[in-house]
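Structure (tokenized):
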């Protein structure tokens, strides 16, 4: 039996939409990372970017389980000495829910050129409506 080795031009990309209303942020991000990477396809190869386009709607309605809203913190550094900024996730989910989902998905894709290319196919929306209806995305249930 021979192994199928797909070429970059042979990849068939589909569009999926994931509704996060009432669903845990981490589980949605993990499923989105699988779709972006293409691991759900039988023609998956780790050296080829064979993932699909993913639209995540209702990012503002995603939930964090346990005490993560009060205890989990997002850190970033500005580049200046002593300028480490921190934001708790209750503030982050209230002000920038799309950023919280983007950080979760970004942490679950590999930090390689294939992972960075996969993140360009991720579209995030805080509300229920999106502008990609012309692509006829299929709904993906968790």
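Design, position by position:
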């Amino acid at each position: 039996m021979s192994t199928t080795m797909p070429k970059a031009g042979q990849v068939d990309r589909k569009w999926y939409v994931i509704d996060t209303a009432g669903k845990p942020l981490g589980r949605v991000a993990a499923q989105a990372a699988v779709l972006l990477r293409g691991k759900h396809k039988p023609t998956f190869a780790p050296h080829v970017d064979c993932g699909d386009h993913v639209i995540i709607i209702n990012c503002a309605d995603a939930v964090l389980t346990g005490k993560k809203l009060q205890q989990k913190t997002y850190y970033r550094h500005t580049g200046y000495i002593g300028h480490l900024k921190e934001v708790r996730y209750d503030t982050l989910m209230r002000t920038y829910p799309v950023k919280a989902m983007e950080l979760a998905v970004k942490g679950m894709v590999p930090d390689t050129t294939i992972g960075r290319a996969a993140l360009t196919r991720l579209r995030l929306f805080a509300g229920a409506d999106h502008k990609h209806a012309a692509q006829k995305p299929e709904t993906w249930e968790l």
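Reviewer-requested clarification: The beta strands are 15-19, 53-57, 73-77, 84-88, 122-124, 138-139. The chain has a mean pLDDT of 95.
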